[in-house]
Specification:
Layout: H1 3-45, H2 53-105
Helix pairs in contact: 1-2
Length: 107
């Protein structure tokens, strides 16, 4: 691969890496908010009769929040895998670029 093509691919990969890191940051922030909301619902539910309609509604809400949190966790894991693949390709490209520079300019 030529030096220019390698450099262009490196720029593209860095952009992809930053995009995924940003998405991971948003997911982690959302997960923290969901965890706080779930905790708030648990606190509210302690004062209620477990058989009351309100307590059951709170329980269903907690279950839905936990499902959303699980989905976010799964998405974060997929992004982590993508990030590792991108970082691996970046390392490979950096080696290729270094080799191209050595062959072109080093003696």
């Amino acid at each position: 691969m030529g030096l220019i093509v390698s450099t262009m691919r490196l720029i593209q990969l860095n952009s992809m890496r930053l995009d995924i890191e940003y998405k991971l940051m948003l997911i982690n922030s959302s997960r923290l908010q969901l965890t706080a909301s779930t905790g708030d619902l648990q606190t509210l539910g302690t004062d209620l009769d477990p058989e009351s309609a309100e307590a059951k509604a709170l329980q269903k809400r907690q279950e839905r929040l936990q499902i959303v949190e699980k989905r976010l966790e799964e998405q974060a894991q997929r992004y982590q895998i993508q990030l590792k693949m991108i970082e691996s390709e970046i390392q490979s490209l950096n080696s290729t670029i270094d080799s191209n520079i050595q062959m072109s300019f080093g003696r």
